[in-house]
Amino acid sequence: MKLGLDLPEASDLPHPALQSVLQRAFFDVFERQFAGAVVINTDARVVWMNPHYAEILGIADLNRILGERIDVLLPNTKLTEVLRTGEPILLDFMTHRERTFVVSRFPIMDDAGQIIGAGGIMLYDAWQPLKPLMDKFSRLQQGLLQIRRDFSRERSARYTFADVVGEGPACKRMKDLGKRAAGLDATVLLLGETGTGKELLAQSIHAASMRASQPFVALNVAAIPDTLLEAELFGAAPGAYTGADRRGRDGKFKLADGGTIFLDEIGDLPLATQAKLLRVLQEMEIEPLGANQLIKVDVRVIAATSRDLPAMVEAGQFRADLFYRLNVLPIRLPPLRERSEDIAPLSEKLLADISLRSGAARKSLSPEALTWLASQPWPGNVRELRNALEQATMLADHPELTPADFLPAGPPPPLNPLTLAEAVRRAEMEAIRSALLASRGNKSDAARILGIGRATLYEKLAGYGLEKV
Ligand SMILES: Nc1ncnc2c1ncn2[C@@H]1O[C@H](COP(=O)(O)OP(=O)(O)OP(=O)(O)O)[C@@H](O)[C@H]1O
Questions:
Q1: Span from the CA of 427 to the centroid of ligand 1 (angstroms)
Q2: How far is the CA of 382 from the centre of ligand 1 (A)?
Q3: Helices first, then strands: H and E counts in the chain
Q4: Distance (Å, whole) CA 70 – CA 40
Q5: Is 319 in contact with 277 (CB distance < 8 Å)?
Q6: Ligand 1 contacts CB of residue 166 (under 6 A)
Q7: How far is 257 from 250, CA to CA, in rounded Å?
Q8: 380 Cβ closer than 6 Å to some ligand 1 atom
Q9: Measured between alpha carbons, how far is residue 239 from residues 77, 226, 229, 247, 291 in Å?
């Protein structure tokens, strides 16, 4: 390597002078050939750093970092490991703020062979000989980062209290209690019929809590077959299953670690799983299926149900101890028919949202339509109101909706002969619709009326595109 200095003949120089010239040359090479260089002492504190390195760390004033611990400035550093082991790490990758560098780290010894510090150099990220390798590594790294970002977006709360519409006294009380719950870290139990906004409130509580930057993970207990529930909640060790899950997987509690888990339709939890959940809530430890090992987690639980849990406790269908454990901060979500004063602002918000999502022109409501909407029982609550507004928006040609736009259409036109499969399909859809109506939207009750399991009902709802009914 050419040092780029006009050096006198080494033999002409006294030893200390030669040392100092060579040292200067060495640092000069660092300056020009490498992105950054740093030297730390045995306390892992910075004793020297070049401007490139400081720039990469985003530090404007070099003097301010002299004496700082390197692992505070650069949490990914392995320089402390070099100090501890005395072993160099000559070639490695280090990622800082989404940029990746090739780094080399080495111990610095005194004449007696004692470690007196460690040095690290970062090569330019575009350093020619390594460029193809670095480019490939960077692309992979960026891809991984993107996947992680998407993943965490999926696991984050989308709604806040600002999205909870309603200024009537019942809704105001619900929001106030929610905000109070957000300031505490206790278990919350949301009680309300289907479509009253339990998940919306759960997300808002999480988003306003100290766990907001951590995951929000939701699980609808009623939608998972009993046999898969435990693995879904607590995870499974590799080999606990055959087939697709042979590699093992994390349960929702693990995924929610540090954040909030939202357990919807908790009343549908089978008794055996209730006992396991109670233990998890008491110990904050999970045991993945087949793992034989306890894993500590730190999760705030928000549970929700549309069922009468005290009556289920009475009937021996729900464990009393679990009920008390969950019922720390109960919040009742009023059904829409008890807060007709909220219909107008809710409809306005929903119509704006429908137009935004569908691209259809935004509709308004005539005073008669508003009065009509406020007089309806809305067994499916806000979700049903939204569906009604969506349907009317799609079907009406005029900008202002009237009650006629919401009334059921007249008798269907005479049908052409159907295939048997189509006739069965329509009859099944109709049976599901009326069971849901009779159960006021409660899917477990609807499944019971239909004489099928909950999971089968959910499958059929998804198949017919009726999930939102
Ligand atoms: N107060 C509200 N303001 C605005 N939108 C609301 C409100 N309450 C509910 N919604 C909307 O209604 C729909 C249903 O709400 P959500 O899924 O939170 O209900 P849920 O009680 O969890 O229902 P289920 O028990 O069936 O799962 C969502 O689109 C939600 O955004």
A1: 29
A2: 6
A3: 19, 14
A4: 7
A5: no
A6: yes
A7: 11
A8: no
A9: 36, 20, 17, 6, 9
Which residue's alpha carbon is at the smallest distance from atom 13 of ligand 1? 383
Closest residue to atom 28 of ligand 1, CA basis: 383
Distance 335 CA to ligand 1 centre (A): 11
- Give, for ligand 1, the residue of 165, 196, 200, 265 to mutate: max count of ligand atoms closer than 8 Å to Cβ: 200
CB atoms under 10 Å from CB of 461, counted, come to 19
Angle ∠(445,260,272) on CA atoms, nearest 5: 45
Q: Whose CA is nearest to atom 10 of ligand 1?
A: 197
Q: Which pLDDT value is given to residue 318?
A: 94
Please state, in angstroms and as integers, the Cα–Cα distance from residue 65 to each residue in 38, 42, 46, 119, 342, following that order.
Answer: 11, 16, 7, 16, 57
Q: For 343-361, what is each residue's pLDDT tens digit? A: 999 999 999 998 888 888 8
Exposure string (b/e) for 174-201, b if CB count within 10 Å is 16 or more?
A: bbebbeebbeeeebbbbbbbbbbbbbbb
Residue 437: which of 401, 373, 387, 368 has the closest Cα?
A: 387
Q: What is the ipTM of this complex?
A: 0.97
**Structural domains for the chain:** 10-147 (3.30.450.20), 161-332 (3.40.50.300), 337-405 (1.10.8.60), 420-463 (1.10.10)
- Cβ 267 under 6 angstroms from ligand 1: no
Q: What percent of the chain has pLDDT over 90?
A: 38
Q: How far is the CA of 195 from the centre of ligand 1 (A)?
A: 5
Look up the pTM and report it: 0.61
* 207 within 8 A of 348, measured Cβ to Cβ: no
Considering 58-72, 155-169, 249-263, the range whose residues carry the highest mean pLDDT is: 249-263
pLDDT of 52 above 90: no
Ligand 1 in reach of 264 Cβ (< 6 A): yes
Q: What is the 3-state secondary structure (H, E, C) of 254-307?
A: HHCCCCEEEEECHHHCCHHHHHHHHHHHHHCEECCECCCCCEECCCEEEEEECC
63 neighbors 44 (Cβ within 8 angstroms): no
